[in-house]
User: Which sequence fits this backbone?
């Protein structure tokens, strides 16, 4: 097991792989003649990397951390809105991936498995804070109609829109964090993380019809909260 796991993509105690040596005939001399050359780890899909990790490859684990560190940090941060705590939870996510690596089944996508771990830990943190602070959710915001997905689109604005888009993002995320947890989680997974409905169903372990119903209610609630504000802040 790595001595230390962090969300910078490092697992301390790992040794760099051997450098390739090319012989006079142009052949790779890193491996003995006739030996099977291991596929380049960076080219392997997540599921194959997990197989290597189960076999004990710490290099494969370090690469998997590097692939997912940003995604997991962003997901957890959007759940709890606390970057320092999100970094700690992200570290816990990767620790659990390593400790429970033999529980992973290739029949499912690795991304769904790790998002499930991250979402569960983030929800636990929200519940912990709710117990400590007595946070109240806004259960009354469920009757609006319309689609607020346009408010959540991940755009690539030009320089003249940068300040405006930053303000819009702050407004949107503040509104999302006023939603009850069961609506907040589906809107984050669908409209922010861009998971499919089927992936959300697996991550949250709820029926597909429930996923769609909660997404619809969450979007309606956000539209009701955001349209009066953002409708006046549109940039041509």
Assistant:
């Amino acid at each position: 097991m790595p001595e230390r796991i962090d969300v910078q993509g490092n697992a301390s105690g790992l040794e760099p792989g051997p450098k390739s040596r090319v012989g006079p005939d142009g052949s790779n001399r890193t491996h003995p003649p006739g030996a099977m050359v291991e596929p380049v780890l960076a080219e392997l899909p997540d599921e194959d990397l997990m197989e290597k990790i189960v076999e004990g490859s710490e290099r494969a684990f370090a690469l998997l951390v590097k692939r997912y560190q940003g995604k997991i940090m962003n997901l957890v941060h959007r759940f709890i809105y606390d970057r320092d705590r999100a970094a700690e939870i992200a570290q816990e996510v990767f620790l659990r991936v390593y400790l429970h690596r033999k529980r992973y089944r290739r029949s499912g996508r690795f991304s769904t498995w790790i998002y499930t771990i991250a979402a569960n830990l983030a929800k636990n943190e929200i519940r912990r804070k709710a117990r400590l602070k007595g946070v109240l959710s806004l259960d009354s915001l469920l009757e609006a109609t319309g689609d607020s997905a346009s408010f959540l689109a991940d755009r690539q604005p030009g320089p003249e829109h940068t300040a405006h888009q930053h303000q819009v993002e702050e407004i949107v995320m503040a509104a999302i964090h006023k939603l009850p947890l069961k609506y907040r989680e589906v809107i984050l997974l669908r409209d922010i993380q861009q998971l499919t409905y089927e992936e959300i169903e697996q991550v949250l372990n709820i029926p597909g019809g429930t996923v769609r119903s909660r997404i619809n209610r969450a979007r309606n609630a956000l539209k009701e909260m955001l349209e009066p504000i953002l409708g006046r802040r549109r940039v041509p």
